[in-house]
Amino acid sequence: MPLTPLDIHNKEFTRGFRGYDEDEVNEFLDQVIKDYEAILREKKELFERVTDLDEKLEHFKNIEETLNKSILIAQETAEEVRRNAQKEAQLIVKEAEKNSDRIINDSLSKSRKIMIEMEELKKQASVYKMRFKMLIEAQLEMLNTDDWDEFVEREEDELEQNQS
């Protein structure tokens, strides 16, 4: 067990014949006591400082650990967000491909329908043209017949009779 300043102060030495000068020994002991007290104070202060620094170190270790965990969580979250975004992008692409296929199929279907309608209109136009041509030919034939000339002559004769 280490000596305390009080142990040093209370220390009694035995006297011998022609022993040490008592004042000189007391003066030296007083100096030792002062130095010893100063060293003990310094030791106490250093111990308190070490304790304080240990607490701060522990605090900073906790902060470091928390930051490391936060970084790991942020990295995992970023990776998960990236994976989700990739999945979503793939879904969007698939949906767009489906939509484009549907639009193409609809367009092809409509174009086929229009082509069929166009063919039908061509047929109808051809039939109409043939009927119209037949009508005109029939009318021309009727104009070129003798019946028309007779009709015109009869009409002229009747007009002349009515004028006379």
Any overview of this molecule?
This protein has helices at about 5-10, 20-145, 145-164. It has about 160 residues and is an all-alpha fold. The relative contact order is 0.03. The mean pLDDT is about 90.
Outline:
The chain is mainly alpha-helical and about 160 residues long. Helix content is about 90%, strand content about 0%. The chain is built from 3 helices and no strands.
Number of helical stretches of at least 4 residues: 3
CA-based gyration radius: 64 Å
Oligomer: single chain
Overall average residue pLDDT: 90
Helical residue percent band = over 70%
What's the shape? rod-shaped
Family: Belongs to the DivIVA family.
Protein name: DivIVA domain-containing protein
Subcellular location: Cytoplasm
GO cellular component, one term: cytoplasm
